[in-house]
Design brief:
Strand content: 25-35%
Largest sheet: 8 strands, mixed
CATH topology of the largest domain: Aminopeptidase
InterPro entries: Acetyltransferase_Butenolide, Acyl_CoA_acyltransferase, GNAT_dom
CATH class of the largest domain: Alpha Beta
GO molecular function: acyltransferase activity, transferring groups other than amino-acyl groups
Organism: Arthrobotrys musiformis
Protein name: N-acetyltransferase domain-containing protein
Mean pLDDT: 89
Helix content: 25-40%
Length: 186
């Protein structure tokens, strides 16, 4: 099993000038903290730098980077610009919880969010015993259809009076994998 985790912790995908990487050392911690403290990241707040570093290393963290920003910089030590994130809290075997999906508003509308989620999906597809991937979202109009389309997720529970949508998709390790409908007893 360690080989699945090791293989997923050092993955990267390239699309035009953009890079998605699961290498936690690439995250610019101060910028990630700024993002978590921003109004665009309304579902969480930043933690101290040491805790943020541990959080990113302990999760399967996907960073999105604009490499052209580094190429166009006059600073020789310039790094790619951090423009997105998604995290999977996972045991790399049976369970994955998707959280902290964000793309910089200046980069939205370029398909980066969809691509990021396809990269996440590719990673979860490498977990042959995965029972389920789940998430919570408060954005019913955008997020629910987005995750239904890209990951095949379904809303499991609809809270009375609104609130968070609890969504999941069954993996190959789930006893009902591939069946139509949802069996709440399994």
């Amino acid at each position: 099993m360690a080989s699945i985790q090791a293989g997923l912790k050092n993955r990267s995908w390239q699309k035009d000038q953009f890079l998605v990487s699961t290498d936690p050392s690439l995250f610019p911690l101060k910028r990630v903290i700024e993002v978590f403290d921003s109004k665009d990241f309304y579902w969480a707040k930043a933690v101290p730098v040491e805790a943020m570093e541990e959080m990113l290393k302990s999760s399967l963290s996907f960073g999105v980077y604009d490499q052209s920003a580094a190429e166009n910089s006059t600073d020789s030590a310039s790094e790619p610009k951090f423009v997105g994130i998604a995290r999977l809290i996972t045991d790399y075997v049976t369970f994955a919880y998707l959280t902290d999906v964000w793309v910089d508003s200046a980069y939205q509308g370029k398909g980066l969010g969809s691509w990021l989620i396809r990269c996440v999906q590719e990673a979860t597809d490498q977990m042959p015993y995965l029972r389920r991937t789940m998430l919570f979202t408060a954005n019913w109009e955008r997020s629910v259809p987005f995750y239904e389309k890209l990951m095949g997720m379904t809303v499991v529970e609809t809270p009375r009076g609104g609130g968070l949508a609890f969504m999941e998709v069954k993996g190959p390790g789930h006893p009902c994998y591939g069946r139509d409908g949802y069996d709440y007893d399994v």
